[in-house]
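Q: Convert this sequence to structure tokens.
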Amino acid sequence: MLTQIINAIILTPQGWLKDGSVIIRDSKILAVTDCDLAVVGAEVIDAKGMYVVPGGIDIHVHGGGGFDFMEGTEEAFRGAVAAHMKHGTTSIFPTLSSSTIPMIEAAAEVCTKLMKEPGSPILGLHLEGHYLNMEMAGGQLPENIKNPDPTEYIPLVEKWDCIKRWDAAPELPGAMQFGKYITEKGILASVAHTQAEYDDIHAARKSGYTHATHFYNAMPGFHKRREYKYEGTVESIYLHEDMTVEVVADGVHVPATILRLVHHTKGVERACVITDALACAASDSKEAFDPRVIIEDGVCKLSDRSALAGSIATMDRLIQTLVQKADIPLEDAIRMASETPAKIMGVYDRKGSLEKNKDADILVLDDNLNVRAVWAMGKLVEGTYSI
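A:
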């Protein structure tokens, strides 16, 4: 099957291509060109001068469409993924909050099955915990939190190769051993829900931790103890220039000014955006998987308002926030939603940019950055076409 998107402003790795076209053959990009000549036998889609950009890659998302990945069922996985795809996410790493071993096993079994389906948007499982600092638990389930335990994590990693990322607080006993082990197995180690200061982060980096989970959230910045000042996790990660970060760019978790600071300091090459979305995202649902959570001010919170507990954001909202509120150039915003997360997760060989022979994961955005069409692996996502 051939599809040709014409009359488009296309984001390529070399920059913007005006009045160009993208040719799709089955699930792959056949060509990106500045020529709008019709291809014989192709279905022609006129983009009408709108933006054509790579599909979003969400590397931290808990659910959507009324479903949470912690449910560990095919229905929940399919429902949440489908909900986010309509908003521009074409690749996804389902995320579990701090869970029990049976919950992880159930989710891993479903994830493994769905990853094997041809053209699956599911690229791997992300475990956010349960090796976190209890003092920085936030919306995590406290009864599941503990120190890293090799009798737990080694069997899980050996059994489930769908696990592609695992987060932990590096100051916990056993966290350095944990980081070394999972990175040797090709799993991304990320700093999360932590009170780490510079020495902790420096040791963590040497032990394989290369990424920071929802940067600025559930981690301290510059602070005092009595009369002395100390760098926080935030400053320590800035000082480790090669560490990458992710930000919940919903305009609530991190203010627009801080989004600009992250972009300015880490650069588009080392900063990506995530939804950190809960089940109520991309749906009319007012409930999260966790009964303690409420929705207020466009974000999820614990009902006592002691902490944020996730977002209701979708990929289009992240891009809109970066551009319209944080004044980040559209090109950089798109790269932070596609290219950078693809590189962080090691899938840039096939995802994250519009290039010949890469997967045909494509968004069409109008001038207000609303999603007007989504192709995932060359297939038009149902309910997204409005060109």
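The first helix runs from residue 74 to 85.
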